[in-house]
Write a structure and sequence with these properties.
By secondary structure, the protein is of the alpha/beta class. It is 44% helix and 15% strand. The chain has a 6-stranded parallel sheet with strand order 3-2-1-4-5-7. It has a 3-stranded parallel sheet with strand order 6-8-12. A 3-stranded mixed sheet has the order 9-11-13. Helix 1 links the parallel strand 1 and strand 2. Bound molecules: 2-amino-3-ketobutyric acid (AKB). The site of 2-amino-3-ketobutyric acid has 12 residues, from strand 9.
């Protein structure tokens, strides 16, 4: 039986992925960890450790103590926050990955998951239906760290046989844990403000198209990739995964279908330049071919769930 370690379990992906992994592998076989305390549903349903990814020795001790065979390394500083603190963010995103890769190699951990992002693309990348392989010239700290990270996982695969699986996540939308410092966060904040205030001031322009995905689809895709046969996988670094493509005005109209009085204004900030350097939509045909990537949610289906679940949260 596999034993799993999740690094960054309190974050947007970790808070949902950990619980899903516990359903599959059993509560006691999935050790959750984060630099800070996680929610009770995680700390009380299985093992939990406080861990800083920059303290590789401590991570290694936990791997040995629990007999870990697979690691999901989710700890990272996202695009918006990384621009505010470039060098510390580089350390967390890059040194955090290299130390874990080295440990996975040394301790012969069977498999690693590490998230990349659409941030690996840049201003010279084809903007629509962005292919898996193309010009990549990211100009954000986060994007540079993700592209360098992709090259490192490919290097460790080729040189040492380390089996790292990776997805270039688009913007992720979820209601359980709020997004933390990214450029695509507007697509989470807007639903919270719709329920709490009936209005939202968006930090991106109304026609800024970006690739996006609802969290249940992201969790399903992540687990599918980790379960895929190694000999079916043709991408050595990180898979393009597209989901949907929409702009703030599309979200506004989708929310208005459920809440006709909802209003939205626009005050773009520094994140507009980041969004402008990213693709609008992604060609994920290789992931569809290699490991059967598919999606359940479109924008309106997601809007219905987001509004209903956030409403429930505030009624409690
Ligand atoms: C961000 O906006 O920084 C992230 C991402 C697209 O990787 N959500």
């Amino acid at each position: 039986m596999d034993k799993i370690l999740v690094l960054g379990c309190a974050g947007q992906i970790g808070s949902e992925l950990t619980l899903e992994l516990r359903k599959i592998y059993g509560d006691s076989n999935v050790c959750a960890s984060d630099i800070r305390q996680a929610d009770k549903d995680i700390t009380e349903s299985g093992p939990f450790e406080i861990l800083n990814v920059l303290e590789a020795n401590k991570v290694a001790e936990v791997v040995k103590k629990h007999g870990i065979t697979q690691i999901y390394h989710l700890a990272a500083i996202l695009s918006g926050n990384a621009e505010k603190k470039p060098l510390p963010s580089w350390d967390i995103n890059m040194k955090g990955l290299l130390d874990i890769l080295e440990m996975v190699k040394e301790l012969k951990v069977k498999r690693l998951f590490w998230p990349s992002s659409i941030a690996v693309f840049g201003p010279s990348t084809p903007i629509k239906n962005t292919p898996q392989q193309c010009v990549m010239d990211p100009n954000t700290v986060y994007g540079i760290s993700k592209l360098a990270g992709e090259r490192w996982i490919a290097y460790y695969r080729k040189r040492y046989g380390v089996d790292t699986r990776s997805i270039r996540y688009p913007g992720l939308i979820s209601y359980k844990t709020e997004a933390g410092g990214g450029t695509t966060d507007y697509a989470v904040e807007v639903y919270y403000d719709a329920i709490q205030k009936g209005s939202y001031i968006c930090f991106l322009e109304k026609d800024t198209y970006l690739p996006m995905m609802f969290m249940p689809d992201a969790i399903k895709a992540t687990i599918q990739l980790m379960h895929a046969d190694a000999d079916k996988l043709t991408v050595e670094d990180s898979y393009n995964v597209g989901g949907m493509s929409f702009c703030p005005d599309d979200v506004f109209k989708s929310i208005q279908k459920e809440m006709p009085n909802f209003t939205m204004d626009y005050e773009p900030d520094f994140r507009q330049a980041i969004a402008n350097s990213w693709p609008q939509s992604i060609d994920d045909s290789i992931a569809r071919n290699d490991w059967n990537l598919s999606f359940e949610y479109d924008l309106d289906a997601m809007t219905k769930v987001m509004l209903a679940e956030i409403k429930k949260k505030f009624e409690k």
